[in-house]
Amino acid sequence: MKVSCYTPHVKIPQEPTFSSDKARFFLQNCNNFKQLKQIHARIIRFRLTHDQLLIRKLCQISSSYGKLNYSSLVFDQLDSPDTFTWNVMIRACNTSGSPEKAIVLFKEMMCHGLVTDKFTYPFVVNACIASDDVDFGRVVHGVSIKMGFWSDVYVQNNMMNLYFKCGRDVVDDGWKVFDKMRVRNVVSWTTVIAGLVGCGRLDTAREVFEKMGSKNVVSWTAMIDGYVKYGNPIMAFDLFERMLLDDVRPNEFTLVSLIKACTDLGSLKLGRRMHDFALKNGFEVGPFLGTALIDMYSKCGSLDNAVKVFGLMKVRNLATWNTMLTSFGVHGFRDEVLHLFEEMERVNVVPDAITFVGVLSACVQMNDLEEGRKYFSLMTEHYGITPIFEHYTCMVELYVRANELDEICTLENTMSLSMKASHNVAELLQESKLTRIDDIEKLIHKYYRNSDLSELVLDHSATPTQPNFNRPYLTLLA
Q1: What is the pTM of this model?
Q2: Cα(31)–Cα(61) distance, rounded to whole angstroms?
Q3: Which one of 14, 294, 328, 344 is least enclosed by Cβ atoms within 10 Å?
């Protein structure tokens, strides 16, 4: 008997195609680095690595996740990256905090004979500024002229910015670039004004400012900020009045500069007027403006208003928390400092060295060595913050008050070599106000055996005043 076997025809489904359009779609909707690597794997599998638009997107996204090495590996796989792709990679190095690598890439780009475009130079200039390499910046300037960009306003504005940002020694070069420009736009004028202000040449900046035809909010703010920065707040407000008469609406930076001027003048009345102006004109009290207001109110003697601003802020950054914490400390509210720090940790705000200066200072005010030890340990061991001189000063003060001079020597083990080179035990003694000569000698010989006691000049005339801790500010923060 013949038996026939029937094998049905089975069509095995093939893997769906993965086009460049699909890859771009997935990259635009990528949420994390793991997803990015999966998309990259499919790009390789479907042989799309020749698509430079995809490669540029991969480099941009991976560098935004802090994976610059991965971006470099992707970039290095390209046989002949075009100018646009080189620009993207140079920019990625800059934004990732590797300006030196950006400069190296530009040099490689030149060695490969690639033709630069007008967008190449701002990225390289920013790298020179970040690495403080004005000498190579001059080379870049020369290359831009040789490549025919000597009259390009966009490129020349960036060259001006290079010289102004690299210090007073080369500010004249920035001025020469501006002076030789045949065509100038608003950015050109604003750049030279801000550059001259930044280098302290207020009179020259003012002359240029007055010659500027159409002044925008950036140029007004640059001049106002310059007068505040160099100690002329009255002139800053005079300019602000002119600005309003010219019907130019100020921005947040303008207001912050003027609030700093109020702080410098110590004028609470003027500070309140600026606060009211901000609210009436629809400015949101965000981290930048709010922090300036807290600082102003605190320094002008109105801690109540500072606390109110802090409590009403929907978004706070680290500077906001530090300013409020420092304000409590300056006004003598030591308990509030520690409670605010606890609240800061509760909402997952990571403190920095400045935060702990305020916290340890509060421990000194409370004369609480155990709390000081706890927070010093928390700072160094949990948060990994390297102690600065102010932290050591607080700890020395606490040990001296507790008569535990032997413990001071243990701090030397945590002190960096640069710290030891910059500050000596005499400065710590000056802050600590030691009075007994045998204690002074004991501390000196343990900390710096070669120190000469006769070289120290200690001033004990100043005695700290005791602050008043009656007002319950914690309830206002709830």
Answers
A1: 0.77
A2: 10
A3: 14
